[in-house]
Amino acid sequence: MSIVHIDNVTKTYRQGKVDVHALSGISLDISKGGFTVLAGPSGSGKTTLLNLMGGLDNPTSGSITLDGEVITGLSQSRLADMRLEKIGFVFQAYNLIPVLSAQENVEYVMLMQGVPAKERSERARAVLDDVGLEGKYSRRPAELSGGQQQRVAVARAIVSHPSIVLADEPTANLDSKTGQGLLEIMCEMNEKRNATFIFSTHDQMVMDYAKRLVHLKDGRIVDDETR
Length: 227
Prior knowledge:
Layout: E1 2-15, E2 18-31, E3 35-39, H1 46-53, E4 61-66, E5 69-70, H2 76-86, E6 87-91, H3 102-113, H4 117-130, H5 146-158, E7 164-168, H6 176-193, E8 197-201, H7 204-209, E9 212-217, E10 220-226
Parallel strand pairs: 3-8, 3-9, 6-7, 7-8
Antiparallel strand pairs: 1-2, 1-4, 4-5, 9-10
Helix pairs in contact: 3-4, 3-5, 4-5, 5-6
């Protein structure tokens, strides 16, 4: 069963008087529970494609279906609701709220969803334990290492049981050992919780963990390998 269906998607940006074709006729199906990596050099279109899947941008043409709902052309309000309900995001810049503790950062999405306080706390602590941050619930981002902050970001992305987790260059700011540890955690989440992960990266280490590796070049899919 496809959790994401991308049908003949193009994305064109206007730069001055020049049209830049970021994506050209992309069609792709991603199955539930997958661990898919979109790989390619800078400018290949991988981050653009990830942003389109996340409803952060709209394609120029074509359609995208997420968990049975066509998201192309939805209102900004409905897109915001859909992101809250169905998508977890992990960014290379972590995007944690500095004044909130690790637990409060993880709880934030559930707070927006209206989850009761007791359940929020229990779920946040359980997922922080899962990512190796037991006992660090009250620490703010500035009191955590980069790798620990990224673990909080992963915990925040998966705690609300989203349909998919989109991770844009999640290891870019981490050393190789810390990055590998993070990938091991996400693999475990994929297996344990059947969470669907989609990465964009040019990091070979991330590619090595992929169950499916989709190579992009100049806005087109040039290779699609299932392992």
